[in-house]
Design brief:
Two copies of one chain form a homodimer.
Chain A: E1 3-9, H1 16-30, E2 32-38, H2 41-47, H3 57-73, H4 91-100, H5 105-117, H6 126-135, H7 140-147, H8 150-166, E3 173-176, E4 179-182, H9 187-195
Parallel strand pairs in A: 1-2
Antiparallel strand pairs in A: 1-3, 3-4
Helix pairs in contact in A: 1-5, 1-9, 4-5, 4-7, 4-8, 5-6, 6-7
Chain lengths: 197, 197
């Protein structure tokens, strides 16, 4: 049986761009099932007084440069700094949550990140969200309405609560059992842990 | 000519323990000269409103666990969480600065981290600092007096200023030319950059 790795992420996390682009393939290569779990890292950051970049221009400048280097290393397109922050109402994240109950979460999240990093658009704005969903052949209005429905809102809150309970504080976080690995740069460690190698 | 990598660190940074234990050997293997530069990351963190762990117990708990895993991976001894924070007056860091003008900075800093992580002692307290220096065959009182002298204090401030100018915000940071790599987990990337491979 394939081992499982839970992939907790937030559409709006910068480093998660590299993870969203490469984690599925890396997991498949390692024989690990990747379980995509959108959650509200913003809620946890607020609770934990852990704001990684807001009001920290020196660290923020480093992050963009480091992200650019990591994107180049993994062959992920990077064409300058995109808008930041994004998705203020977390609607793109609720759509990702809806998608995770079906089979199109990776496709949606990858398209959302492409719109953000390459298109330089906020994938959480209704206009751009609609375009992304249509590009995936989805009924955009139906998806957006369902993403705001009580069951999806509750699932997003429950995923956030799971993350809180696990001791997660940032995105991306990979979880094998109860072992947490934070950051795109811990993907290989997390896969090794999950697969017992 | 060997390529150079500047190693900016603060005795008191937790992840720097792994770097202090492994960077010299990794650099030698890569044919890179490692230039040890103690600086006051605490000063920059205060200026930049960037407190990585204080008041953030969830992130702090993760850090200790992640550090334990990284120590195991690199064969660095880890025997539970040591006292934290340490060196409130930064005297161990000024002794490291003095040592960096001579040839015993790596030996001193490694001994200071061993006292901290294995001995569970604050290497910045005068009592323990004296023991560390004596263990290295140094005249402890003379070293401690010289570490507080104007030239060493000025050099420590100057290193801190260099780090500020480079856009450094954390310890360890590796710098190749003006390219900054933050974190023990960026050592390999920094060595590759420095050696042009």
């Amino acid at each position: 049986m394939a081992q499982r790795l839970d992939f907790y992420f937030f559409v709006g996390s910068t480093y998660s761009y590299v993870s969203v682009s490469r984690a599925a393939k890396a997991a498949a290569t390692a024989g690990v099932t990747l379980n995509w779990k959108p959650f509200s890292v913003r809620t946890l950051m607020r609770e934990q007084n852990n704001s990684p970049f807001a009001g920290k221009p020196v660290k923020m400048a480093y992050m963009w440069r480091d992200l650019e280097r990591r994107a180049a290393r993994f062959g992920v397109p990077f064409d300058g700094v995109p808008p930041y922050p994004i998705d203020p109402l977390e609607q793109a994240n609720r759509v990702a949550t809806l998608a995770s109950t079906q089979d199109w979460c990776p496709a949606f999240v990858q398209a959302a990140y492409e719109a953000w990093f390459i298109g330089k658009l906020d994938p959480g704005s209704p206009e751009h969200l609609r375009g992304i969903l249509q590009g995936l052949g989805r009924d955009a209005d139906a998806c957006m309405a369902e993403a705001d429905s009580e069951p999806v809102v509750a699932m997003y809150a429950e995923r956030t609560n799971e993350a809180r309970t696990l001791g997660i504080f940032g995105s991306p976080s990979y979880v094998a059992g109860t072992e947490v690995f934070w950051g795109d740069d811990r993907l290989e460690d997390a896969l090794a842990w999950a697969s017992g190698t």
